[in-house]
Amino acid sequence: MSDKKAQLKVDGIDGTIEMPVLSGTLGPDVVDVGSLTGKGLFTYDPGFVSTAACESKITYIDGAKGQLLHRGYPIEQLAEQSDYLETCYLLMNGELPSAEEKKGYVETIMNHTMVHESIVNFFKGFRYDAHPMAMMCGVVGALASFYHDSLDINDPEHRRISAHRLIAKMPTLAAMCYKHSKGQPFMYPDNNLGYAENFLHMMFGNPCETSKIDPVVAKAMDIIFLLHADHEQNASTSTVRLAGSSGANPFACISSGIAALWGPAHGGANEAVLNMLQEIGDESRIDEFVKRAKDKNDPFRLMGFGHRVYKNFDPRSRVMQGICDEVLGAMGAENDPLLRIAKKLEKIALEDEYFVEKKLYPNVDFYSGIIMKAIGIPTDMFTVIFATGRTAGWIAHWNEMISNPYKIGRPRQLYTGYTQRDYVPADKRK
Ligand code: CMC
């Protein structure tokens, strides 16, 4: 805690209001405005642009530098040297595991990959063309109905088991969404495979053949999960924290995070990028779309560009760019027409005055969609894959909140509606 103070003078309020200024280990100082309510004031910050809603030790982003640290470790180092499950462990526990701890953790997660057979009945209830994110919101929330044995959020052991179950079962449920849409039999997990490999096995395998998984693709899939693992207080993580602050169970909270992630301004952007590239259709039409993106009167935005926090290259997108080249090379898809459009669009946007001035760089979703398309993952599954990776961060943030003193999240408002008025009976209304 620093000795710094902020002072505020407000017309109509006597004297100066003094507020503590808190310093973190990194990042801007934070003015603690908690005492303002006692003075009859609230702060006003739509979109939480200037508001830190919590204290956290998990992830740090410096948007100006393009820096992303998980528990202090740069994302580039994790992507190169770690793997998804180790990063999950790190996010949840605060430290990298020893070799023995890692082995035990991987075994535990892989032991929880199967879902209760009754979950199949939930899928049977969904229409053949249900959006996989709609199915995910439902089935992940429904997991709570199977685990009455571990729903006491005040018991650290229950929280730990729920976290393991969620991380383990997300790929199984994600693959079930895909299989449902294809009308193919669900594949049981194969716990001898790695986490990402097992996901690809459940997605693309079938009971009549042994799955053949390209190691380049399995590695790329693992890095995609890892790069999505956490991103501090984004819309879906904040939703998980807010839902969790009421004491809701972790499955309900993660389901609410999945719902928040679905929107095109957040996790839905990777799907929107591919749809946009398809709509552009030909390199000759790029200029037309760039022009539309710059037009104030046109709601169209270049999907996969811009970020609330990064005003520099998103470090995840640089890693993603590298995997993109590797996967497309391995799949022989370097000349994919959509990829050519994407590359040209990236170049134009990086040089265009509008994008440069507003610091709109390609974000993680710009490249992840292209990689997933090359792997053969259908567009509507992209956000499900984001959700699968992000489960690690959601559950780590939820656990961090519950493990410390916390209050129910309850923002206030600037009310601009009617002042009090009297009820008018129906026959007297104009
Ligand atoms: N294309 C064209 N103009 C843009 C874009 C874009 N993609 N993004 C921002 N702008 C303009 C915007 O019109 C505004 O202009 P002005 O100042 O003249 O009004 C300015 O840039 C600032 O935009 P903003 O909407 O105030 O910024 P924000 O921080 O509220 O929004 C964003 C961030 C990510 C929602 C936005 O950049 C966007 O809609 N991008 C496209 C969707 C996308 O790729 N989302 C994925 C985000 S990364 C993954 C994740 O975290 O989920």
From TrEMBL:
Catalytic activity: oxaloacetate + acetyl-CoA + H2O = citrate + CoA + H(+)
PROSITE patterns associated with the record: CITRATE_SYNTHASE (PS00480)
Gene designation per UniProt: gltA
Pathway(s): Carbohydrate metabolism; tricarboxylic acid cycle; isocitrate from oxaloacetate: step 1/2
Gene Ontology MF terms in the entry: citrate synthase activity
Keywords, alphabetical: Acyltransferase, Transferase, Tricarboxylic acid cycle
Originating organism: Microbulbifer flavimaris
Family of the protein in this entry: Belongs to the citrate synthase family.
Name of this protein: Citrate synthase
